[in-house]
């Protein structure tokens, strides 16, 4: 059993602890901290279960499952926050997930991989297709904000309608990128599910385990939902106690909690010189957030009557745009070294400082 | 005779119909629709005549003719709108021509070409030279707007003077790009006039036809001017009846009318796997709009006393900037596939939605 | 002796003339002009002395010396202006140095080199590493301005704190880029000090000259400091007499004075088809300004009690961002021709016009 898995098992202990924190009313800060720590291993188990099921049910259906459940943790946390009316926190966590994947995860991967290997290479074609998709996503979230600024007094209903229309286009494009990578141009992406698989310990054959893994997936999903309720419920009071703004919490803290397992995978494989897989995890995940999770939340908000539009805080917009810009610029040549990783991390640090100092409450 | 040409001949019937609509006062909407439909085949005939003349008078003078008359239809429509004082519509149609060429035409070409051929390639060098020229153009139209925003209370005369100075620089650069592509670095552009030519039916040799084609060119130009008068005269009333803003009309409708013939060419050659020519038509046309048509209109407006500056609506600016960004990102590697075409079309759709919802009147 | 060196010797005569202008109170304009002309050869001597010392003390220490003193002239002028409280002029000169290196120097090099050689090539890897560093720098100076705009009523102390934190990150990154280019990945940069060296006349061997060159360096540095006092002291009155704004002076005039010697080197080597060195001088110098000189001035201002934040005028920000964008787009393919040089120069011209017309005082 790897070190990573041992840590995850220890972290599972925080599930009962967080339940105790809730029942015994230990206060918001302990509840926030323990539920956050409990989510990390649950997210990892959800990921493992999804991949095991994907192997059994075959590449097409499995790929689709992976593509839908890949960011399930973020989706659950965000949905519960949306239900609680924390629309700004939801937007901030979308921003932060994109930043985290493109800058923190890819940066750490390139830095730690680059300390071992002088130069690492990966398929630039995949990076470029993803880069163009990310550009589209940035444009999509830029437009409602740009409209709001260039047309004073615009009704929020108009922004809402535009956001729904744009969300439908984005989900459609996401579906087409799946078709592209799984059906028509699979040869470009031959590092995907299979590569991810071979990273894990060899798994037993046969569909006898299918029921087991479906059970694990359901249990982990339910547990994530419960812990997310704790997390969201204690979020505002806890971060206030810590002297942090909701913006900082949403952009920096939440995404680290939701993505910890993926981060570990991306960095681990980078240190084994499998940069194709590492870049694919980081960029693919941020693309999934932008083209699927964010629009899905817009549509969900519309359905449950908690309207969420794509009109992001201009500062978040700037942060996403510059992250996509620098990540594209660094990944487009299909080569990486430790300095490129450092530049991504420095960008993350600079953005983190800016969000820390940003007075928006 | 190709299907395309048959459609164009049928559309010529709208010339007498639009004249009837004007004389018999059928109202703005029929006049707008019929004159729009009449312009499509006229633009195609202007294009054919220009190319035929270009073949006879040789590559240098012919290339220059093509470069000047390539967007003659847009120039005529815009000039007549400028004379009528519709400065905002003119700016919107410049924006829309750039968007239409980079996103709609290139997107459709890459999508339809990509459905036939798994991967299509083209000279990335040409795409890159064009990309840098488009960047310059975006910068040029960005600056007056940026000045206006960063210096409150600036006199419009100063913006006008700056716009004229910038327009002169842009036209100079346009002249130099012609020198580059036709004199000093022709080998990079060996897909230009000749490639375009070979697409058409074999044309008769000899300069006997020169007079004929000059006649056709003059007749078509005059007819376009007449129809543009109808179009511009009925524009405001007709679009109001349709519930569209002048902004949407200028950005989306007018450019489709003016560019329909070019669109058809670019898509047709893409489906024959001649992506070099297809990309060259789309990107070259948007470059011509930005470096020649727009500055020419600024200078023309100055001469005829209808001052037009380069201070675009910030939302149009954002739209042009993101279009150039994503088109450059997709075309810079010299490869295309159906997904890249789809991403361009999705960007066009998202921008179109935004212009549709934009409340600017 | 080369023509360049003869011109520099003649220009040294302006040192006594400027002193006379100061003592005899000839007025601000003569003082400004003569001190400006005196700085040009002094900057060149500082550069030569730095390189000679670098050769003697070996590549590592020498590279570090070069990296620190490479933009010493700009640093001295800016520091003296900062002491005098001309914070806006300092920021403008940082903007202008970046613009000047990326657009004017690289543009002239590519244009004049391209007139001699049809196509010139250089290592795209170096250009890309620099491009990503410049992107980081643009992000770093963009954030304080973006915060200011998105959070109304933010206290200037917060911006100051953020600027100091960001400055420390940038200087750290600068140190790491030196480590990268001088220690871990030297083979990518084998055109640096050595290439620069071989451009000069053969220099005498032995460390006997070390003292001489240290003396030259100290004397030139002192003289630059004196002349900078004259320059800064007369700047406001002189430019007002010329009808120029402090913004235009800072962005266009000061950087040309401080960088004249480097400009000459970059252009000279480009005409000898050593584009690797030429691009490296231009892009490296702008990177040094952004990652070292600007943050050093923020920290220096904090120490001497003349607080300077990184909150640039939005128009300067736009200018830097678009310069980096177009320079990256042109240099990323490792090829250049005269048209690409022209495009950079046209961008410089357009920006220069905008700064000329910008009414900011």
From TrEMBL, chains A, B, C:
Cross-referenced PANTHER family: VACUOLAR CALCIUM ION TRANSPORTER (PTHR31503:SF22)
Pfam families (UniProt xref): Na_Ca_ex
Membrane topology according to the record: Multi-pass membrane protein
Lineage start: Bacteria, Bacillati, Cyanobacteriota, Cyanophyceae, Acaryochloridales
Source organism, top-level taxon: Bacteria
Domain Sodium/calcium exchanger membrane region intervals: 31-182, 214-355
Keyword annotations: Antiport, Calcium, Calcium transport, Ion transport, Membrane, Transmembrane, Transmembrane helix, Transport
Annotated source species: Acaryochloris marina (strain MBIC 11017)
Principal localisation: membrane
Sequence similarity: Belongs to the Ca(2+):cation antiporter (CaCA) (TC 2.A.19) family.
Compartments, record wording: Endomembrane system
Summary of the function given for this chain in its UniProt record: Ca(+)/H(+) antiporter that extrudes calcium in exchange for external protons.
A GO CC term attached to the entry: membrane
Protein name: Ca(2+)/H(+) antiporter
A single GO BP: intracellular calcium ion homeostasis
TM stretches of this protein: 30-49, 61-82, 94-113, 125-147, 159-180, 212-235, 247-269, 281-303, 338-357
Signal peptide feature range: none
Gene3D superfamilies: NCX, central ion-binding region (1.20.1420.30)
One term of GO molecular function: calcium:proton antiporter activity
């Amino acid at each position: 059993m790897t070190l990573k898995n041992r840590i995850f098992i220890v972290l599972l202990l925080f599930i009962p602890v967080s339940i105790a924190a809730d029942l015994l009313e230990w206060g918001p800060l302990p509840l926030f901290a323990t539920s956050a720590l409990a989510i990390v291993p649950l997210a990892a188990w959800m990921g493992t279960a999804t991949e095991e099921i994907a192997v059994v049910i075959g590449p097409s259906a499995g790929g689709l499952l992976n593509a839908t459940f890949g960011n399930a943790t973020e989706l659950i946390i965000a949905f519960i926050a949306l239900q609680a009316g924390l629309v700004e926190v939801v937007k901030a966590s979308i921003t932060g997930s994109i930043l985290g994947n493109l800058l923190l995860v890819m940066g750490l991967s390139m830095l730690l991989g680059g300390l071992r290997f002088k130069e690492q290479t990966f398929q630039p074609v995949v990076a470029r297709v993803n880069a163009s998709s990310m550009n589209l996503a940035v444009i999509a979230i830029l437009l409602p904000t740009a409209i709001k600024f260039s047309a004073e007094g615009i009704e929020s209903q108009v922004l809402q309608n535009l956001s729904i229309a744009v969300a439908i286009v984005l989900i459609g494009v996401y579906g087409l990128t799946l078709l592209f990578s799984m059906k028509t141009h699979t040869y470009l992406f031959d590092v995907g599910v299979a590569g991810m698989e071979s990273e894990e310990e060899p798994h037993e054959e046969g569909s006898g385990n299918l029921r087991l893994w479906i059970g694990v997936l359901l249990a982990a999903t339910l547990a994530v939902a419960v812990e997310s309720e704790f997390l969201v419920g204690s979020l505002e009071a806890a971060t206030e106690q810590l002297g942090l703004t909701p913006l900082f919490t949403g952009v920096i803290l939440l995404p680290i909690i939701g993505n910890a397992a993926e981060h570990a995978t991306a960095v681990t494989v980078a240190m084994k010189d499998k940069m194709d897989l590492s870049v694919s995890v980081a960029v693919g995940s941020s693309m999934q957030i932008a083209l699927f999770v964010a629009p899905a939340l817009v549509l969900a908000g519309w359905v449950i009557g908690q309207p969420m539009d794509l009109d992001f805080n201009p500062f978040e917009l700037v942060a996403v745009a510059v992250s996509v810009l620098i990540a594209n610029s660094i990944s487009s040549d299909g080569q990486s070294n430790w300095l490129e990783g450092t530049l991504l991390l420095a960008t993350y640090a600079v953005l983190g400082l800016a969000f820390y100092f940003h007075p928006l409450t």
